[in-house]
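Cross-posting from the chemistry board since nobody answered there.

I work mostly on the small-molecule side, so proteins are not my area. We synthesized LLZGTKA7 and want a rough idea of how it might sit in this target. Sequence and SMILES are below. Is it possible to get a predicted 3D structure of the two together?
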Amino acid sequence: MSTQDFKKVLIALDYNNEDTALSFVSQLSPDECRLKVGKEMFTYFGPQFVKKLVDMDFDVFLDLKFHDIPNTVAKAVAAAAELGVWMVNVHASGGHEMMSKAKEALTVYGDKAPLLIAVTVLTSMDQGQLLKLGIEKTPQEQVLYLAKLAKESGLDGVVCSAQEAELLKRELGEEFKLITPGIRPAGTDAGDQKRIMTPQKAVQAGSDYLVIGRPITQAKDPAAALKAVNDSIVAS
Ligand SMILES: O=c1ccn([C@@H]2O[C@H](COP(=O)(O)O)[C@@H](O)[C@H]2O)c(=O)[nH]1
């Protein structure tokens, strides 16, 4: 069993209390998972919180989903690189120029540059919600469209649901990374997620990294919930 199998799990640290988050993190090893900091914790606790996790040797995915004019996004991803994060993301719908300028801004960091990933269609969205935005494609078609744009713009991969993983691996190749939230172990609550899949099926479909929040962080025993997910992945 390789530690890389375990490091497929990115735990979404969505807490409103830093001590609660750090107490959970203190039960984890950087060999068994990576950590994701999103808008809630970053807005409460800022770059200092991210730095604490980086200094504890965790690979940190800074999930701030930048979406702005190219110059602003390029500077924001460079600021993320300064924090020493492992991965950072932008919205693919920001367009080719925004994504390619962001990638270019990271070249000065050489092999220390974080992976740059584009969000395609949020996993909380289904066909009905896309229609309300005036998008007539299916979620699969829209994800593929935006993922091709992200690849053409030089990005390292995309955030999509595991339901699109097989298609994207076939169309865009093995090297293009697929980061999949909307992961739900059997019997857990989907909550606001619409395009979901179990950890084991997601890995079989081609997901490189599984983003998991509430099924682990809200479990009675979060460390045991992570272990169960890791065991199910290794068994797949
Ligand atoms: O399309 C997306 C992009 C990001 N997310 C983030 O992932 C986690 C999922 O948490 P759960 O509790 O497992 O639902 C959360 O931080 C989202 O902001 C996403 O769900 N979908």
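Reply from a structural biologist on the board:
Welcome over. Reading the output above for you: The chain is about 45% helix and 15% strand. The beta strands are 9-12, 34-37, 60-66, 87-91, 115-119, 157-159, 177-180, 209-212. Happy to explain the token format if needed.
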